[in-house]
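Review form for a predicted model. The reviewer records the input and the model, then writes brief findings.
Reviewer: anonymous (R2)
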Amino acid sequence: MRLKADLTLLFVTILWGSAFAVMRLAAGHGSVFLLNGLRFLLGAALLLPFTKLQKAFNRSTLVYVGLAGFALYVAVGLQQAGLVTTTAGNAGFITSLYVVIIPLLSLILWKEWPSRLTGVAVMMAILGAFLLSTGGSFQFRSGDILIFIGSFFWAMHVIVVSKVQGSMEALPFALGQFMVCSVLNLVTGIFIEHPSQTEMLSLLPAILYTGVFSIAIGFTLQVVAQKHTPANDAALIMSLESVFAVLFGWAFLRETLLPVQGAGCIMILAAVVLVQVKNGKMRAP
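Model under review:
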C-alpha cells in the first residue's frame, strides 16, 4: 500500500506541475480570488456525486476540514498574487520551502524528529529546487514575500491532511476543504475584485483545467494517498511538482531549460529515491 500511495502522490505532482503553466498564464489577468473560488467550486461539484455525506462530519472533523480549507485559501491566494510581481522560477523555489517547514513544524508542535536520511533528503530537495527554479541565480522581487508566507500554509495543509487520517473518509474531507476554500475566495473576490465579462472569460480555461485536474483529481488523490505516507515523506515526493512545472513550461510555454536546472531535477529525484530506500529498509524483515 505504501508504494501505491507514493506512486499516487507522484501522479498528483504531474497534475500540479502541468497546472502551474496554466496558472502562470492566468496570473496576468488579475481576479485572484474569483479565479480560485470558481475553480475550487468546480472541483467540489465534480466530487459531490461520488461522496457519501451522511454522518461524514462531526465537531472534531469539521475543525480539520476548516483548517485545511483555510490553509488552501491563503496558500493559493498568496501564490497567485505573488506570481503577478515575481518570476515563476522564484515562485517555484520559494513554494518548495514547505519541504523544510513541515519537519520543522512537526518538531516544534509534536516533538516528531525526522530521521537523518530524511533530513539529508530535505536539504537535497531544497538545493535541487534552488538550482531548478532559479538557475542558480536568485533575484529578490516583491511577490517573493507573499509566496514565502504562503509556503507556511502549504506546509500547514500537508500536516492537517496527515493528522486527519483515520478520523474521516477521504472524499468527504476533500469535498469539505474545497467548499471552505471556495466560499472564502468567492466572498473575498466579490468585495475586492470587479472584473469585466471579458476578463472572466479569459480565466475560463484556467478554471476548467485546474478545477478538474489539479483540484478534483489532484487534491483528492493527495488526501487518499497520505493515509499511507507520512507528512515529511509526502512533502518530498510532492517537491517533484517543481520538476514537472519546469518540464511543462519548457514543452508548452517554450521556456528555457538550462544544464544547471537539469542538475536541480536530478537532485530532487535523488532526494525522493533516498526516501524510498529508507522506507524499503524500514519494511525489510
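Findings: The chain has twelve helices and no strands.
Further findings: Residues 2-283 form one domain.
Recommendation: see findings above.
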